[in-house]
Design brief:
heterodimer; A: alpha+beta; Cytochrome-c3 Hydrogenase, chain B; three-stranded antiparallel β-sheet; 16 helices; 44% helix; B: Beta Polymerase, domain 2; five-stranded mixed β-sheet; two-stranded parallel sheet; 3 helices; 10 strands; 19% helix; 27% strand; globular
């Protein structure tokens, strides 16, 4: 071609001894904005992460929430105390028992002198801990799925199915239970239910070892998660992370042990459970693997707690004296409990009437998610999925 | 540590903005006081929120290193104030602190706590879209849960439910 200027300078060209010509080009890329979601399997629901990337490198991330916003807090100000309970099932739908408990405990905190019967406390603890296992099983399975391991997901759902069947027997629902009511629980364990829970614990203990070996100690899995998405201790605290996200960064704090509620203080004194904390076993402390590992270990601690409850449970009433149309004494209370994802807080304000004046929900997923905007910057695009998965969010709760 | 002890510690360190403690009390029929149950609150001046939170975080006796929650409440439609409610937690001392700041509805503006706790970022965004509070110095004051073109502040008691949204009837 006449007059054609070569697009390279002489410095970018070199002749090899073989006579072949070699070129060095500085490939200049520009930032590209990619929408991850709202419909994306790795966001675990309808959430959108706007990722800015330069080639394979993530240079910015912005989470866009609100696709699943259902005004839970506004509904709380418009329905009666007990009527709000089914709505609590629907924010963290993987751990609905825990939500029921958090809300019930917040309302009970407004009733001075009210005490939940002992049998109800034990049934509550059993259900909450079983639900924690079910929730961590989903976290375990879907995290594998996110980064390409399909088999563990199918195994995890087999055990989760059993837990759901157990819940169906005690309250009739498989996902949105409304089982834990203000004042206690609404149904006693059917005959043989506690024995079956004991049987589940025995079987699960054996399966759990397989699960750990299958995914957590899997070489490929470790390669994908160790040293990825490291949250140092200070950063975890600054961002207000709670639950496995905080413990994965090496902070030894669990509300069940450190600010005990229900029978957890007693259980811990009896040595019924420990608090697993990330140790940086496979990589740097606070990486995705640590967070995942904390969840896997917590399942076993929950089994120990369930076993302790099965020993301690005794006959008695299952619900305190709570009227059908509840009028809660005036006051304000905040109760935070340890949900599978962190601290689930309820602030309730009553003026003495049938309806709350304010019902605030502090969802752990919401605060835990905030960290990804900072965490994803500077990582590879493929790792962004591993990072979002390791936060184990439920979009129903981030958006409420 | 109990609230009164926390209050005394903060007073001894001459931290600005302390207005007192709001403790739960039993009902008193003679004075027609319905009483209040639940949680004790530390009442603070919203103008001094940043130095106060900094003191809560940094004083070795308190060490509230986790901001658990920041939200607001509208106690009454005809009331003059909104309440800003902050929940703090100390990992070391294992105690909690509930802070309440009364913000007049005529001037819903206060400084952002993001400089003290980065956890405040999303909570303040939610709080400002739901109640219309402006947090001065917030790094990213966009809406978070609501659509960008949403009118009104839904969690205020005087909020009127919309009748339509982009031509879709809501009635």
């Amino acid at each position: 071609m006449k007059g054609h200027e070569p697009s390279y300078s002489m410095e970018e060209r070199r002749t090899l001894p073989s006579g072949e010509e070699e070129f060095f080009f500085d490939v200049k890329t520009s930032d590209l904005e990619v929408n991850m979601g709202p419909q994306h399997p790795a966001t675990h629901g309808v959430m959108r992460v706007l990722i800015r990337c330069d080639g394979e490198l993530v240079t910015g991330a912005q989470a866009h929430l609100g696709y699943l916003h259902r005004c839970a807090e506004k509904i709380g100000e418009n329905v009666e105390w007990l009527q709000y309970l089914p709505y609590t099932d629907r924010y963290d739908y993987l751990a609905a028992m825990n939500n029921n408990l958090g809300y019930s405990m917040a309302v009970e905190a407004l009733m001075p002198g009210f005490e939940v019967p002992r049998r109800a406390v034990m049934l509550r603890t059993i259900c909450v801990e079983l639900n924690r296992i079910a929730s961590h099983l989903v976290a375990y399975g879907t995290y594998g799925l996110d980064i390409g391991a399909i088999t563990p997901f199918l195994y995890a759902f087999r055990e989760r199915e059993w837990i759901q069947a157990l819940f169906e027997k005690i309250c009739g629902a498989r996902l949105t239970y409304s089982y834990i009511r203000i004042g206690g629980v609404f149904n006693d364990a059917p005959p043989g239910w506690l024995t079956e829970v004991g049987h589940f614990c025995d079987v699960f203990e054996e399966k759990w070892k397989e699960y750990r070996d299958l995914l957590a100690l899997n070489h490929i899995f470790i390669k994908r998660t160790a040293n990825v998405g490291v949250i140092p201790k200070d950063m975890a605290i600054d961002f207000g992370l709670t639950g496995p996200m905080l413990r994965g960064s090496g902070v030894d704090f669990d509300l069940r042990r450190d600010i005990p509620y229900m029978a957890y203080g007693e259980a811990h004194e009896a040595g019924a459970f420990d608090v697993p904390v990330g140790e940086g076993e496979k990589g740097e402390l606070g990486d995705c693997w640590d967070r995942f590992s904390v969840r896997v270990q917590e399942m076993m601690e929950s089994i120990k707690l369930v076993r302790w409850c099965l020993e301690m449970i005794e006959d008695g009433p299952i619900i305190g004296d709570v009227p059908k149309v509840l009028k809660v004494p005036p006051g304000e209370a905040y109760v935070g409990i340890e949900n599978p994802r962190g601290e689930l807080g309820h602030y309730v304000h009553s003026d003495g009437g049938k309806i709350a004046v304010r019902c605030r929900v502090r969802g752990p997923s919401f605060t835990n998610l905030a960290v990804i905007e900072e965490l994803m910057v500077g990582t590879l695009l493929a790792d962004s999925v591993a990072i979002i998965g390791s936060t184990d969010i439920v979009v129903g709760e981030t958006d409420r | 540590m109990e609230l009164q002890a926390i209050y005394d510690t903060l007073t001894a360190a001459k931290v600005a903005g302390l207005l007192g403690c709001d403790e739960p009390r039993p009902s008193n029929k003679k004075e027609k006081d319905p009483g209040r149950s639940g949680l004790p609150f530390l009442m603070v001046d919203p103008a001094e929120i940043v130095p106060l939170l900094t003191a809560c975080r940094d004083m070795p006796l308190l060490q509230f290193d986790l901001l658990i929650d920041l939200s607001a409440a509208d106690p009454a439609a005809d009331g003059e104030d909104l309440w800003v409610l902050i929940q703090l937690l100390s990992l070391k001392h294992r105690h909690r602190l509930a802070i309440k700041a009364c913000l007049p509805k005529s001037a819903l503006i206060m400084s952002s706590a993001t400089a003290v706790y980065r956890a405040a970022n999303w909570h303040e965004r939610e709080c400002s879209e739901m109640f219309g509070i402006t947090f001065e110095g917030h790094p990213d004051p966009r809406k978070i849960l609501l659509p960008d073109d949403w009118d009104g502040y839904p969690l205020r008691k005087d909020y009127e439910f919309p009748t339509e949204y982009h031509g879709i009837s809501c009635e």
